[in-house]
Here is the input.
Amino acid sequence: MVQIAVMGYGVVGSGVVEVLMKNANSISHKAGKRIEIRRILDLRSFPESPLADRFTDNFEDIVNDPEIQIVVETIGGLKPAYDFVKRCLLAGKSVVTSNKELVAAKGDELLAIARERNLNFLFEASVGGGIPILRPLDQCLAANEVYEIAGILNGTTNFVLTKMIREGLPFDRALELAQRLGYAERNPSDDIDGHDACRKICILASLAFGKHVYPEQVHTEGIGLLTLDDVKYASEWGGVIKLIGRARKREDGRLECIVAPMILSRESQLAEVNDVFNGILVRGDAIGDVVFYGQGAGKLPTASAVVADIIDEVKHIGARKFLSWEPGENGYVADYRGYSGSVMLRLKCKDVQAVHRSIENMLGACSRVCVAQAPPDELALVTPAVEERLIDEALASLSDAALVSRLRIANL
Amino acid sequence: MVQIAVMGYGVVGSGVVEVLMKNANSISHKAGKRIEIRRILDLRSFPESPLADRFTDNFEDIVNDPEIQIVVETIGGLKPAYDFVKRCLLAGKSVVTSNKELVAAKGDELLAIARERNLNFLFEASVGGGIPILRPLDQCLAANEVYEIAGILNGTTNFVLTKMIREGLPFDRALELAQRLGYAERNPSDDIDGHDACRKICILASLAFGKHVYPEQVHTEGIGLLTLDDVKYASEWGGVIKLIGRARKREDGRLECIVAPMILSRESQLAEVNDVFNGILVRGDAIGDVVFYGQGAGKLPTASAVVADIIDEVKHIGARKFLSWEPGENGYVADYRGYSGSVMLRLKCKDVQAVHRSIENMLGACSRVCVAQAPPDELALVTPAVEERLIDEALASLSDAALVSRLRIANL
Here is the structure.
């Protein structure tokens, strides 16, 4: 028998308890031992729960209990989760978490503490919800030089974009619908502004390339400014707009890492990832392209990833797992203005032909995208692959044109 | 340092050697030890190879060499692979294989020998080529009750179907093209007739549901009889034809397991798996739908899965891995005539209305599918979900209609 504690009885935490109880027999068979939930930390009490007597609002009941070998953290956020997790590891308990904010900000430090104490710090649920991705990525990494990872990492924004693309709902109404259906928070900034996707690409990049990537190193744009006109132009070009997190290794050993809405060709495997689903693409030298697809959030999918980590930990108590990386450093992630790629520029200008010519003089041949009933002063161009700073310079030099939107075209 | 042998220097075997040599540094870093290729078994000699001195045509040089701890089997087929693998395990060597025919036919026996001797018998590469699927499935299984697995498991047939659907090539010409491009063998029966997909669904079903499913228990249909008319009717209905291998658990504990061309709705995540790619869908009670996508065959993708197994084995020499299942039994796979589902029937008949009515009298309301320029004596109907034996009976009772084709509609 192994005693565990669950910290945080919100959506994910209560899901973990539910899965552990519902599939108790097959889980103990797989783990080789029975798993007993000894404590549940929450400020609220749940007198109706069959586990009502296990609830506590005092973290000390968990960290000081020598019977508890594994602590599950599903509180979310940095405070108090960071302190609690750190103290649990220092007290000799392995930790399983679904908290992407914590792993993205403090993963290197917590992994180092776990490593020193021969404990595990596991977080499969922090990326892609229930989709097994971190272990398979580790497996891809074993025999491959993985050089790029990219994905649709946030279900809320993907739902909003799907409604804009498929049903022509404007952004605000699509977001309202997501909120009504419980897919978006009342304050949706974490999702809409790209922060959630940023944390996830940080975790994937850290694991894939071996050094911590911190969220503040990653240029991050959200989807809040997208309009149905953007959707229409993307469609005319042959693509769809998705919020993409992407990391790739450069030949100089530094990383390119960015989160932004991008236009994907309809042929891309990620183009068909719709609604609240996530899709993650891994590119390796031997394996080619591999895609993992599933529900990236939600109570039970996320809980099932947490429980898989718990089972893995129970099977290997005292043995170190694979997941690890080094601390990051300044300059490890290259300035995004040096990343190269095609961009769709949309401009308002009186003399469309002249602006088209001056952009081509600066950036090389561009293809023009025209949609039906576009105003005559609108110009949409797809540039060749050039560094972002050159596009900045070209736009700054135009005196008689106003930028409406600028969308990267992702070669995925 | 760990000494290994590679048996069979064909496409996959030479790929394994290539990956081990090309990524030697990162591989030894990950495995924690250097991996040395001590012997390569092949009837041919390769005097130009940098490893020319390691080649042997005598299996005894491998099985009797106490320095060799891991043997990689990439010969394929049952003879002599089965004898060789069994003798290696009995001699105390762990085995890694890409040989789906071997695992599908003899997996239970070889796993039992490995289990008794505290060795591993690993075969990630036998399903889905380079796509990590067996370990992630095991992870899905840990916390979920997985109740269905289905996939596009054969790249050759998927290439042929993609060419029929997208470019309107008739079957024969699409197959010729696949042969010219090296995607199909000169004798393509293993792929075209569904045997290869059958072996793979046997392996997936054995792992997912815990008992061996043997290929001869699985009703298997190939794609050799499909025509462009079938493609057209499927498209009119809103779908595409794919060769699907599917296994699901019934409430009585028995399995439904089948390989056949099926019509998938265009909304299915598997519908967009094209060309030589594979896609595998896993359905669990907590996780929902998860899909794994990538190159299901090819030298380097398959080799990278073999190498991932080798690394895993090197890291865990003397420790047993998860993969295992019990022997199968008669009656464990239910007779396919008892499986329920919708079917698209296409018939030639003089009195289309009368035949439509008699089928509906027997099976319930059917929807008719009409394509442009269809001959007036052609009737295509989509039945409600009924047992296959009822459809057999209904067709047998029609005196004035000839069956042209019968395609299952997969709810995936």
